[in-house]
Protein 1
Amino acid sequence: MTALPGLGTHQLASPDLLRSTFRRHAAGVAVITARGAAGPVGFTATSLTSVSAEPPMISFGVGTGASSWPAIAEAEHIGVHILGEHQHELAATFARSGADRFGAATAWREGHEGVPVLDDVLAWLVCRIVARVPAGDHRIVLAEVVLGDPTGAGRPLLYHQGRFTALRD
């Protein structure tokens, strides 16, 4: 670490600097799903962003080393699910490497275009992928909204300081 007058201490760019900085950033928790050649795939994402209202478009990042990447790389459509504060375990399941993400504990159904749609979420969308943009060891996926349901009840699940948490009043 180095000190600069008026700026305090600082670190040179590194993966640890980025991780440490973003642990301080509270993010909403989503699960991205797709139909893969060997069955449904999915992962927990905190990088979900609204990109455009006209046309309605979202983006998210996915690591090219992630087990879900091969299916996302080939998929035409994906599901986006906004998790509620009651869904800590679901978020952890989809974040855990090697987990049976679509096993008996996960309530889901096949939706539009064969996309896996999770039950009991705050909101879900089915989107058509329009681009996969290289970004370091990730790809930024841009997807246009096809249909969805924003009417789930409850408050959002958040990710902060390396753990799932909820809003406080």
Note: The chain has one domain: 13-155.
Protein 2
Amino acid sequence: MPDRRTAQEALERLIVDVPDWPEPGVTFKDITPVLADHHAFSAIITALAAAGKDDHGNVVVDKVVGMEARGFILAAPVALALGVGFVPIRKAGKLPRETHAVTYTLEYGEATLEVHRDGIAPGERVLMIDDVLATGGTVVATRQLIEACGGTATSCSVLLELGFLEPRAVTGDLPIASLLTV
């Protein structure tokens, strides 16, 4: 698929590794150069949105969620490309109304994510979008939030998968589309 190949090439060319950030031993994958390049950004949005369509190009989701914070940057334009709504998954204390919350383990700590209780209606099919799939904890927590609202997580689409951390060992049967695996 040309769009996917273009997206992969852009990621390989433009992602910058930042060693020892946010703490020693962690290599941060900086995607801001990808976002600053219009052609690269367009290609990745098209490629990420493919997970929300069937083999005939029909949209098969009702909502797109983006995980804080870089997932927001990607998920909102994916939702627009699919013609569906966007729902933010936020860190604890950032949403002003009643929420569902899940605490989980990161590759370098612990976090709590929240979603508005009415952000996803019962029965809605939801595509999850994030930048990096590392340990899989964020995906598992987000899926739990979607299900707490009564929705169904249909799949997850990410820019980059850190395969050496074996995230799919914890994400279960959820289909995951990764544009690039390292």
Note: The helical segments are 2-14, 32-36, 38-49, 70-82, 137-148, 168-171.
Protein 3
Amino acid sequence: MALTTGPGGGGRFSRLAHDSRVATRNMTTRRSLESLTAEPDDNDGTQLKRAVGATQLTALGIGGTIGTGIFVVIGEGASLAGPAVVLSFVLAAVACMFSALSYAELASSIPVSGSAYTYSYATLGELVAWIIGWDLILEYGVSVAGIAVGWGGNLNAFFDNAFGWELPTAIAKSPEDGGVLNLPAVFIVLAITLVLVLGVRESARVNLVMVGIKMAILVFFIIIAFANFSSGNLTPFAPEGQDGVVSAAAVIFFAFIGFDAISTGSEEARNPKRDLPIAILASLAIVTVFYVLVSLGAVGLASTDQLSGSDAPLAAALDDGAGITWAAALLSFGALIAITSVCLVILFGQTRIFYSMCRDGLLPRNLARISPRFGTPARLTVLLGVLVAILAALVPLSEIVKLVNIGTLFAFILVNAGVIILKYKNPEFPRAYRVPLNPLLPLIGIGFAAYLMKDLPGETWLRFAVWLLAGLVIYAVYGYRHSRLRTEPDRAARPVVGE
């Protein structure tokens, strides 16, 4: 059986050899690196515009990360670790760092939309790619819906703090919380959908402005906090010892994961080989510095009880610790801006993953068509925006949002595994950036993700399994038959095993 081999170790089946070999290993067939990296040049109406640079990509990472994590979760972390929550932020950043290194290598080497889905297609085969893609659709969609609900709550908090009134419960909360329709959540999702339809350059500019505003508000908090710092609040520093620090880190970990959304926009980066590693690693570094300074300022400004007992811990710290009563309105406004940018970046990521799966034929390909006017997958973006808006408006989210955690960690495991596989399967393939000490550092990244996954509730694992089972049914009925690896045999790559 003939097998043609391209540069860098990539290979493609000839048409004559395709039927017999792929028939036995088609679900483990990998996309060749050559076909993936050539994807943006396909002249089939699915080409995205390369329109953003390193600064805008970095802002996407910051925009997708600094949100409710620092404005809200710091209180929960303080309740678990006390003032040592500062160390929890550092530990969570270290845990993310190993996966960020792997994302940086794969994003610069395979600068194509899809993030972990695309990387899995190139390293672990089509079936695993479908599983992680289906997982990411849920992760991003539920995440956006949950963030939108949080945006509505913060909008009401801002109205209350600034003007002394709130929206009626009937239009401000979902049926789960005693309302009829969460209108603010619907509004923010549809508004962001419109921005995303207009173009990636426009979306990146809007996000850059929002990132600047929320970072300015956090700088304001840091300055006031350290000007009124009380070392007495740091005693006892770690009341629950190491266990408390680790438990808080597991909670805080998910405040760092926005950097992976950068890789979903790989195909729209002007200079992906240089800009993507810079953006991924720089955004994680900047976010970590802000998180550590804000958390240190917070525990020095207010007691652990004051932080953990408030839904707006930073505002409570300024009010109780510094006596700035109008700070609640300012911090509520900052939280609104922060959550808006997170919502924009995460919904952007979901559209690009869904787009990649449609372009590969695993989902309807006509949804991957790019609007000639806007240069974006407008039809797909509107469809996902409407579905997420309905989810945010009506569906109870208190339990399903836990699926975001397991989905993210699962993606981290596969991305780290992909870097190891590429090292040995395609050692000569050109890489603009390489993970140092491979496979040691990716293995540590896998270990961190698996360690955090083991403590997730059994109900979360069950729901995750049900969602994946539903996805496998769709793959068997539609995706397997319509995959471009079958409809266009020349795109097939060598199988994962038996090479």
Note: Residues 135 and 467 are 8 Å apart (CA to CA).
